[in-house]
């Protein structure tokens, strides 16, 4: 069944879809589900190759060296530090691209390219918008949708994960909170509404989404509440035991640090549920005899009206709307004067302890060197890190690259002991002239320290 | 009121099914058995009274025809007059084991052939009645005979030991459309009455002293008269779908748990005049950030209960704070005063306003 869907999908001409691997993997995953034999080496490889070939023939991308960054440019991480220009020449040399490896150069180049892409958010002809359009048109392709709508058993985790990896909004939270039957359907409609917002300009894709909408209503609109409960329970089985922390959820406080979701005890009720607290007693004739109240411990409000199941309508439900539409400002504030002696690091959302340790070391080193300078005390410095969040498997990545900002504020400290050592280190730097080949800059520093 | 006791850790987390906890008390050996469903396997563990886990066992759903591993829908201990059996229902069939889960004594495969591919086939709903074990298979109930009474899959079955009279109802079945069917057990089961549900599923039902207590998907608990089917009490109990109901038959306490993280305990009684059923709210407990999926009393007097939540790898236990005299007697004859007592627990405990009752009710009357 899914093989047929995959065949339908792969026969579509896709133009410049950067998510080529996504096309390849579902086929492999689906094939795994259907066939009895466990190993199908040729199938996924063949599909990926075909998709990749399609992509390659459309748009040959040659790595161009014209706009390579200058070797005297500083490393990306250090470019924004105030006062970095006044730093000693030796330090500049260390931190420049001359001594850095290829990866650092690529980072800067990537940043420059990203700036070009992000420059004009209204530009619908830009690469970003085009990619979005392509993804959506692929996903909502009619034949694929038809196959998807045929009733079938739950996919294995692996198969489904590859499909959802880049294209679905995180569903766990919605499943946890959506309780009444039709809530799940409303959430799906919310998703579709948000997708329609992305592709406003392209009528063909809009048409596809509308068709999907109709199919959804046909298939699921007629289901009873109990059947929805069953669907929801089956989906929750799929998500069971996954405690992946998603940074946007942690920021919004809908997920706490253990990975469990926060279930609020207040707020609007689903349509059809009354506010708890009332006990009504009837007699044999059906007349109400008594009304009593009890305290139920939460503070709920009744739903104002039923959500609309039409093509366009007020869904009433907030779940399923685009979480990324809220602007998340990058936090860039100067840390105060170094009154506290301890180095203070703010917890990053998806913590990488090794990275933090490296940064600590770096902070101490650089902080120490700054204080050594006679040109006045620097209270501290701020370090902005742009990292791509690869751990977000469940979050929607409707942009080509996830632009999530994590800020680590490091306050430099006065440390008399390191000063002498630093002077020694700096002396040693003159001798080193071959660039390091180690993976991260932290390793660079540590390796350098080890050699002393 | 109730204070939180030590939790019992599970090897795997609980699945998001209704009625996903079964408790078997063995007072002779001073043990309590707990059964929780985790996807394709069911976990059984036995614990000492203080909650110290003693033994764990995992039972797998038997593979039948089909591609994906079968999922278990319910696990339940059935206490029959001569033996206790553990029943497991899954998408493939019905398995029965000895009470400790050691030996499978019976296996009934569900016929996947007669159901079309469009509908899912599964068994769900287990109860013991007299000498029979009732297990529901989709819309039908499978016993020595098949009882056709439901059009939508059955969710739960409740039974009560027969009172000794002839036409007393002692089996109630509930289904996904909210329909309740009341039966009289015997060599041949007889359908006595039907109570329509208006589309709201009824995931859990209990029977006590001729009163049916049913929990619905819109958070309501309704009490009906079993013989006539008239509605007596309607409680807007929860903000989300109710997933488990349990009864402590000795004292007439009803436990309701829902996905809104709350667990409520109600006291059922019959009014002296008119014989109406009356309900009073005894206690409400909030289990923070937990989608409760199963709740049971741990003993027939209702002094302690256990709760499981979706994706939670432990069984939470609560026990009431009663004076030692009352505990010894087992069945309190004077009003039980519940004190509000907050115990610091490692997990973040949301402080919910608990009802403080100075004197609950008059003496418990004998039926």
Automatic annotation (TrEMBL), chain A:
PANTHER family: OXIDORED-NITRO DOMAIN-CONTAINING PROTEIN (PTHR21439), PROTEIN OSCP1 (PTHR21439:SF0). This is Protein OSCP1 isoform X2. It comes from Balaenoptera acutorostrata (Common minke whale).
UniProtKB/TrEMBL annotation, chain B:
Residues 1-321 form the WD repeat-containing protein 54 beta-propeller domain. PROSITE patterns: WD_REPEATS_2, WD_REPEATS_REGION. Transmembrane segments: none annotated. This is WD repeat-containing protein 54 isoform X3. SUPFAM superfamilies: WD40 repeat-like. WD repeats lie at residues 235-269. InterPro entries: WD40/YVTN_repeat-like_dom_sf (IPR015943), WD40_repeat_dom_sf (IPR036322), WD40_rpt (IPR001680), WDR54_beta_prop (IPR049546). Pfam families: WDR54 (PF21031). Keywords: WD repeat.
């Amino acid at each position: 069944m899914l093989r047929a869907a995959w065949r339908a999908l792969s026969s579509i001409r896709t133009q410049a879809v950067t998510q080529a691997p996504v096309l390849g993997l579902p086929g492999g995953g689906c094939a795994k589900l259907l066939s009895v034999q466990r190993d199908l080496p040729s199938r996924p490889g063949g599909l990926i190759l075909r998709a990749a070939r399609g992509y390659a023939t459309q748009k040959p991308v040659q790595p161009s060296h014209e706009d390579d960054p200058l070797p005297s440019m500083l490393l990306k991480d250090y470019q924004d530090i105030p006062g970095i220009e006044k730093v000693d020449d030796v330090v500049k040399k260390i931190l420049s691209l001359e001594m850095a490896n290829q990866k650092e150069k690529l980072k800067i180049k990537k940043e420059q390219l990203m700036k070009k892409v992000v420059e004009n958010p209204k530009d619908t002809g830009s690469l970003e918008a085009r990619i979005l359009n392509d993804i959506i048109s692929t996903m909502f392709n009619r034949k694929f949708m038809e196959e998807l709508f045929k009733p079938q058993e739950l996919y294995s985790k692996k198969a489904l994960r590859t499909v959802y990896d880049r294209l679905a909004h995180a569903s766990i939270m919605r499943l946890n909170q959506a309780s009444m039957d039709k809530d799940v359907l409303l959430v799906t409609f919310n998703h579709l509404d948000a997708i329609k917002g992305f592709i406003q300009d392209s009528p063909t894709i809009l048409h596809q989404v509308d068709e999907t909408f109709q199919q959804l209503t046909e298939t699921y609109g007629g289901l009873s509440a109990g059947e929805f409960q069953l669907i929801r329970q089956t989906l929750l089985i799929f998500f069971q035991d996954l405690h992946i922390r998603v940074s946007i959820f942690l920021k919004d406080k809908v997920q706490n640090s253990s990975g469990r979701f926060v279930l609020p005890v207040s707020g609007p009720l689903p349509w059809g549920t009354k506010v708890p607290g009332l006990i009504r007693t009837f007699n044999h004739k059906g007349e109400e005899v008594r009304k009593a109240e009890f305290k139920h411990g939460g503070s709920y409000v009744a739903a104002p009206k039923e959500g609309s199941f039409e093509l366009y309508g007020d869904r009433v439900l907030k779940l399923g709307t685009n979480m990324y539409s809220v602007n998340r400002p990058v936090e860039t504030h100067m840390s105060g004067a170094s009154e506290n002696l301890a180095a203070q690091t703010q917890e990053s959302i998806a913590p990488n302890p090794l990275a933090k340790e490296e940064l600590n070391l770096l902070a101490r080193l650089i902080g120490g060197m700054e204080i050594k300078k006679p040109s006045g005390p620097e209270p501290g410095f701020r370090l902005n890190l742009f990292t791509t969040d690869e751990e977000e498997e469940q979050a929607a990545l409707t942009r080509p690259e996830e632009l999530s900002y994590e800020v680590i504020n490091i306050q430099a400290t006065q440390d008399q002991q390191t000063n002498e050592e630093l002077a020694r280190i700096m002396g040693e730097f003159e001798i080193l002239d071959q660039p390091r080949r180690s993976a991260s800059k932290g390793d660079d520093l540590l390796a350098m320290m080890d050699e002393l | 009121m109730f204070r939180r006791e030590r939790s019992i850790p599970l090897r795997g987390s609980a699945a998001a099914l209704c009625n996903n906890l079964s408790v078997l008390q063995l007072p002779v050996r001073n043990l309590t058995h707990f059964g929780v469903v985790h996807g394709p396997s069911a976990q059984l563990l036995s614990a000492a009274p203080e909650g110290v886990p003693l033994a764990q066992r995992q039972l797998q759903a038997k593979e039948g025809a089909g591609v994906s591993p079968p999922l278990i829908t319910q696990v339940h201990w059935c206490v029959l007059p001569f033996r206790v059996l553990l029943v497991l229902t899954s998408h493939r069939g019905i398995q029965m084991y000895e009470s400790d889960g050691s030996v499978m004594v019976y296996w009934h495969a569900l016929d996947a052939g007669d159901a079309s591919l469009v509908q899912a086939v599964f068994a769900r709903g287990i109860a013991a009645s007299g000498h029979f074990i009732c297990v529901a298979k989709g819309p039908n109930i499978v016993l020595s005979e098949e009882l056709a009474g439901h059009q939508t899959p059955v969710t739960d079955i409740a039974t009560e030991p027969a009172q000794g009279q002839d036409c007393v109802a002692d089996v109630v079945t509930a289904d996904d459309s909210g329909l309740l069917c009341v039966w009289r057990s015997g060599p041949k089961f007889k359908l006595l009455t039907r109570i329509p549900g208006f589309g709201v599923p009824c995931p859990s039902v209990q029977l006590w002293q001729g009163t049916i207590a049913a929990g619905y998907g819109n958070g309501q608990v309704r009490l009906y008269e079993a013989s006539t089917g008239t509605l007596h009490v309607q409680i807007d109990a929860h903000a989300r779908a109710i997933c488990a109901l349990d009864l402590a038959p000795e004292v007439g306490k009803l436990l309701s748990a829902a996905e809104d993280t709350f667990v409520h305990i109600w006291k059922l009684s019959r009014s002296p005049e008119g014989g109406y059923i009356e309900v009073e709210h005894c206690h409400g407990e909030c289990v923070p950030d937990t989608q409760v999926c199963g709740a049971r009393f741990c003993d027939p007097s209702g002094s302690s209960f256990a709760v499981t939540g979706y994706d939670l790898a432990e069984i939470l236990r609560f026990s009431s704070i009663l004076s030692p005299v009352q505990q010894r007697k087992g069945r309190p004859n004077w009003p039980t005063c519940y004190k509000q007592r907050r115990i610091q627990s490692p997990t973040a405990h949301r402080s919910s306003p608990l009802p403080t009752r100075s004197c609950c009710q008059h003496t418990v009357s004998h039926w």
